[in-house]
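Reviewer comment 2.1 asked that we show a complete input and output for one of the modelled complexes. We chose the fe (ii) ion case, as it is the one discussed in the main text.
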Amino acid sequence: MGRLKDLRALVDEKLKTIDDAKRISATVHLYGVSLAATLIAEKRGLDQELCAMAAMLHDMHAYLSGSYDDHAHKGAKLAEEILAELNQTTEEETACICSMIYHHDDKEVIDSDYDEVLKDADVIHHCFNDLSKPIKAKEQQRYDALRAEFGLQ
Ligand SMILES: [Fe+2]
Ligand SMILES: [Fe+2]
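Response of the prediction step:
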């Protein structure tokens, strides 16, 4: 098995502790953001596997704790622990993944190229999961930029 597949199995296992409805929406979001992160990374010439792995972990703290309070920063720490358990990433890769998670809620500022992939992938899933829903004000600028980047009208 590849390490993305192994990480997904580990995430699936950890999500078994939460109730059905929450587990389904958590799974849909994590896998959705992971797919979006892969596409964005490919488009920008970045490592798609690292981006997909960061996406699989990015909201885990919120799902497992039941609170979004400071979930990005706390989630970076949790991701470090889960990656240590996975034991398939180098120190640099772990640092890159944790940085993406640490910054992912800072949608209104620009961080590193990798950090930006996760922010944009999160916005893609929030917006494209149901196009009938209004776009949140804090995501509008990224959403418009992503549509332009992918050549959508
Ligand atoms: Fe989040
Ligand atoms: Fe998210």
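Residues 3-149 form a domain with the Hypothetical protein af1432 fold (CATH 1.10.3210.10). We note this here for comparison with the apo prediction described in Section 3.2.
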